[in-house]
Amino acid sequence: MQPRLTLLTLGVADLTRAVRFYEALGWTRSTYATEGVAFFQVGGLVLSLYPRAALAGDAGIAPQGHGFRGFALAYNTASRAETDAVLTRAVEAGATLVKPAEDAFWGGYSGYFSDPDGALWEVAWNPDLLPLADGSVRLPA
């Protein structure tokens, strides 16, 4: 198996609300038409939004559960100022600010927000993992 992640699906309580939130961040919903799901191209990865109950049903598990899910999504920025701007835009779009940006123990600057369905996002400036022109980051060899 090659080390690859191609699509990340977030289970959402309200698909319309979730789409509005990500569009308010400035993301463009794909015209790829499949009923009941929304897709966003994010660099070399696809983010999909799918109703939580349907996603759990597809996996054959119960949809109940909340709180910390044991992971966070990340958005790397090119500067401290961009980190603050992204956090502000997320809150204006309907996110909850979980932790304001501050200097991080690993030498960068980061903060957290949660989207309307509770997905945790870290927004970080990391001088060692700056985004490339296409928005991706590359680990040192």
3D architecture notes:
Helices cover 23% and strands 30% of the residues. The chain is of the alpha/beta class and 141 residues long. It folds into two domains: 7-59, 2,3-Dihydroxybiphenyl 1,2-Dioxygenase, domain 1 (Roll); 73-125, 2,3-Dihydroxybiphenyl 1,2-Dioxygenase, domain 1. The strands form two sheets. It has a four-stranded mixed β-sheet with strand order 4-7-6-5, with helices on one face. Helix 1 packs antiparallel against helix 3 (80-93). The radius of gyration is 16 Å and the shape is globular.
Helix count, per DSSP? 3
| CATH-defined architecture of the largest domain | Roll
Secondary-structure element pattern, one letter each: EHEEHEHEEE
Radius of gyration: 16 Å
Name of the CATH class of the largest domain: Alpha Beta
Q: In percent terms, what proportion of residues is strand?
A: 25-35%
List keywords for this structure.
4-stranded mixed beta sheet, 2,3-Dihydroxybiphenyl 1,2-Dioxygenase, domain 1, 3-stranded mixed beta sheet, 7 strands, globular, 3 helices, alpha/beta
Summed up, what is this model?
With 141 residues, the protein is an alpha/beta fold. The chain has three helices and seven strands.
Summarize the helices and strands and which ones pair or pack:
Elements: E1 7-12, H1 15-24, E2 38-42, E3 45-51, H2 52-59, E4 73-77, H3 80-93, E5 96-103, E6 109-114, E7 120-125
Parallel strand pairs: 1-3, 4-7
Antiparallel strand pairs: 2-3, 5-6, 6-7
Helix pairs in contact: 1-3
